[in-house]
Every structure is written in C-alpha cells, then in structure tokens.
Design brief:
By secondary structure, the chain is of the alpha+beta class. It has helices at 2-6, 59-67, 109-118, 126-139, 155-167, 185-202, 213-219, 237-242, 247-252, 359-363; strands at residues 19-30, 33-44, 48-52, 74-79, 82-83, 94-97, 173-177, 205-210, 222-227, 230-235, 257-266, 270-275, 280-284, 297-302, 308-310, 322-333, 337-344, 348-355, 370-375, 381-384. Helix 3 (109-118) runs parallel beside helix 5 (155-167). The radius of gyration is 25 Å and the shape is globular.
Length: 386
C-alpha cells in the first residue's frame, strides 16, 4: 500500500475512452465468503448507474471497491481508464454520499461543504473557497444557508449539503450509498428528481446503491441486478423490465404473475410450461433469456398490466389467448390506475393493473365480483425458473 502511494499514477488505457468505471473479473472475499464473485462490467462516462439487489447481494461491497475502502482479492478496478488496485481511497477521483449523510454536527453548512477543499495541497485561498462553496450551495438549491447548523436542517436539506460537499472537489465519479433511505416517501420522490437533474447539470458519473427497485428504475441509465455476489443482468431499465434473463430479475424489477412447472414443449421461439395443476401455458422467450429444454424447470411471467379484465357476460375479449374466471378479492384505487387481486381456481391469486381510462378501470369491479380475465400469449415471457 505504501509503495502504491509513492508511485506515479498509471496513464489511462486507450480502450477506456467513454468508460468511467470498469471491473475486470473482480472478486472480494472475506474469509470463505465471496461478497463479490468474478464480476465484470463497464459504466459509461456521464451516466447514472445503480446497483440493485437485496441485502447481502454484493452491491455495497462493489461500491466500496470503487471508493477504495476495500481492495479486490482478484481482478482489476479502473476509474477513467486508470488502474486503481492498491490506490487508497483519498487518492481516487471519487467522493461518496453516505446513507446518513455523515455531516459534521459541530460545523455549519459552509464549513461542512468547504471541508474537502481545505484538505487540498496547495490549499485554495479563502476567497476561492468562499466562491466555490457559494456555487455549490446554488447548485443544490440552498443559497444563503451557509451559516445554518447541520442539526437545524431538514432531512432533504441535509442530503443536499452532503451532495454539495461531495461534489465540490469535482470528482470523476460520485458514489451514493442509499442516500434516500431515511427520507419519507414524498420527499424521496422529490429528491430522486433533484438527483437526476443535478447529475445532468454537472455531467458527473453517479453510481447508486439501492434495494428500492422503483428508485433504481426511475433514476438510472443502467442498472446491475446483483445476487450472491454476481451480476444477474446489466442493462437499461427498459431492458431489465421488458427482457429479464430469468425469474429472479423479472421478480426483482417490477411485479409479475409467475406460473411455474416443467417445460412440456419448446422450440427456437418459446416454450410451454405444464403447471402442477396440469395446466399448459405457452409464451415466447425473453429476448435476453436462454432457451429452455423439455423437462427442465421453467416459468411463464405475466406482468399485471398485460392482463385484461371484463364482465363474464360480455364477449368482447375474444382476442385473449388464455381466458379464466375468477373473483375479485381486493381492489385498490391508485389514481392513475386500479390494482385488482383476483382469485382464479386454476392459477391462484392473480395481480392485475388497469389504467384509469381502460374499461376495467372505469368498471371498478368491487371485491367479491365474479369477473373474467385473460392475456395474449405473445405478451408473456417464458423464463428459466432461477
């Protein structure tokens, strides 16, 4: 480590143009536990990336490997094309915003934001520090609040101060460790938009760790879905939602109705699953999923928004390839849409979402109502049950 601190930083690699963070076969072990297991990915320059997954999946360890708080057991970590293995955290062109902001309670807002500048050598002049702190406060929409104490601020204001402090040294990459987790729902939504706007304004690569799928989907250019130290799928929010590689990703990104069983038939385009109740349901493969073999475990994923509801006395839904009868158990009005939970004897409980302007949304089927439901075969997905 000491040797790494005295060496001149390596030159950026030619192939790193446009890439701010790259992992090449990175693993991190704590004893016998592989917190990160042979992970490779690239985060484009100026993008907003999220690591998404449950607790213990490796997302926070991945963030700490970028920050330099951890060193990989194997593999290479690069920032803007420069190898970072062995480089300590304070020499890396990154800053981090922590979940609980880690503001200094004995300092006012100005001193909190200026802290990083005062550690630079040579140290900027007092006038330069004042100018840059003022710009940072303007950037995070807190002008004139430099004299406030941290404990006098709301949660959203504290988060903005933490962002200003992290951005003032103009890092190549800003790391965000679940910074919205402590905020209430409305403020969290507001701050999601603020973070997106801020990222576009400063043009810095943001890397977020979160377990909140809505947060990741709404804010990110790319997302890495993690499980057991590996990345299950890496792509844009629309790719992950519309083309999941397996049931795990489909279940973690959005919601789905899953009909699991053995593969009864399969070809190059899709598969038919026979459920435990003997029902056979077919669907095309996900564009990113693997093809299934007859006899293997598979699942048909049906998103709630592709399921149609109608009155059983009507015949206007003949276009549905799969049609069933059921009874509404719950109806939840969500403003722009209505969510129904429907008990279907052959399938179990089915989740349905009907847009406000749709016939089902307007009908307002109440709990206890007998209804019909169905979907088109080509709108479902056949996935590996893993």
């Amino acid at each position: 480590m000491a040797a790494a601190m005295t060496q001149q930083a390596p030159e950026p690699r030619a192939e790193a143009a446009g890439i701010d963070v790259r992992f090449r076969g990175v693993s991190k072990r704590f004893g016998a536990v592989a917190a990160v297991d042979d992970v490779s990915f690239e985060i484009p320059r100026g993008s907003f990336h999220s690591f998404l997954g449950p607790s213990g999946c490796g997302k926070t360890t991945s963030l700490r490997l970028i920050a330099g708080f951890e060193q990989p057991s194997e593999g290479e970590v690069e920032i803007a094309g420069v190898p970072m293995v062995g480089v300590p955290a304070y020499r890396r062109p990154v800053n981090m915003v922590f979940q609980h902001y880690a503001l200094f309670p004995h300092l006012d807002v100005f001193a909190n934001i200026a802290f990083g500048l005062k550690q630079l050598r040579p140290r900027p002049s007092a006038a330069e520090i004042g100018r840059r702190v003022g710009e940072a406060l303007e950037l995070v929409r807190l002008p004139g609040m430099g004299s406030r104490r941290a404990w006098e601020l709301s949660g959203g204001q504290q988060q903005r101060v933490a962002l200003a402090r992290a951005l003032i040294n103009r890092p190549t990459v800003l790391l965000l460790d679940e910074p919205l987790a402590a905020l209430d729902r409305k403020l969290r939504r507001d701050m999601q938009m603020e973070l997106q706007n801020l990222q576009r304004e400063v043009g810095i690569t943001f890397v977020l760790v979160t377990h909140d799928q809505e947060e990741a989907l709404s804010m990110s250019d790319t997302i890495g879905i993690m499980r057991d130290g590996r990345i299950e799928q890496f792509g844009s929010p629309s790719e992950l939602y519309d083309a999941p590689v397996n049931r795990y990703v489909a279940d973690f990104v959005g919601e789905s109705n899953f009909f699991a069983g053995a593969v009864a038939a399969a070809d190059a385009d899709g598969a038919t699953i026979r459920t435990a109740q003997g029902l056979e349901i077919a669907a095309p493969y996900s564009p990113r999923g693997r093809k299934l073999a007859v006899g293997s475990a598979g699942v048909i994923a049906v998103r709630p928004e592709i399921v149609a509801l109608w009155d059983p006395a009507e015949s206007g839904q003949a276009l549905a390839d799969y049609r069933f009868r059921g009874r509404v158990r719950n109806r939840i009005y969500l403003g722009d849409q209505t969510e129904f939970s429907v008990a279907v004897p052959e399938l179990g409980e089915i989740l349905v979402r009907a847009p406000k302007g749709s016939a089902a949304g307007a009908a307002g089927f109440a709990a206890g109502t007998e209804i019909a439901l169905g979907w088109r075969r080509e709108r479902a997905l056949a996935l590996a049950d893993g």
